[in-house]
Amino acid sequence: MPENLRHFIRLLIAELQDLSEDLTLIDDVLRQRFEAGEITAYVYRENDALLRRERDSITNMMKVVDGIDTSIYKDSAELEAELLRLEQHVVQSLGEPEAVVLFLKRKIDKIRSYLSSGEGTSGNP
């Protein structure tokens, strides 16, 4: 089981990196809209600040995920629950954006679906 969990972790880190890049792209589009006069400075600053906080939270989450000792979990369900619990704690205690818990849940669901389909198992493309 630990190898399956390590594979899960690798996939989750890749998904979180992709999410962080998506948020950067959204921020770039907002900046372009601001520069083109389509949105006000206030709207741009508020959205930019939120996107940066979400990105920072995701970066911190990637560090936590990367440091997880998979040998202490009996299966992926236990690992998934712990990741969500940890992130919910961070959101509540540090005031991180609540959306990051939803982002994490969606990524976990996506990976679970991918792995259960058999596409993400060793030896398959």
H/E element string? HHHH
Structural class: mainly alpha
Largest sheet: none
Span of the ends, CA to CA: 21 Å
Overall 3D form: elongated
Number of strands: 0
**Contiguous uncertain segments of 5+ residues:** none
Could you explain how this protein is built, in words?
- With 125 residues, the chain is mainly alpha-helical.
- It has 4 helices and no strands.
- It is elongated, with a radius of gyration of 17 Å.
In short:
With 125 residues, the protein is an all-alpha fold. It has helices spanning 2-35, 41-66, 76-94, 99-116.
Q: Which helices and strands, and how do they pair?
A:
Elements: H1 2-35, H2 41-66, H3 76-94, H4 99-116
Helix pairs in contact: 1-2, 1-4, 3-4
Name the descriptors:
elongated; 4 helices; single chain; mainly alpha; 125 residues
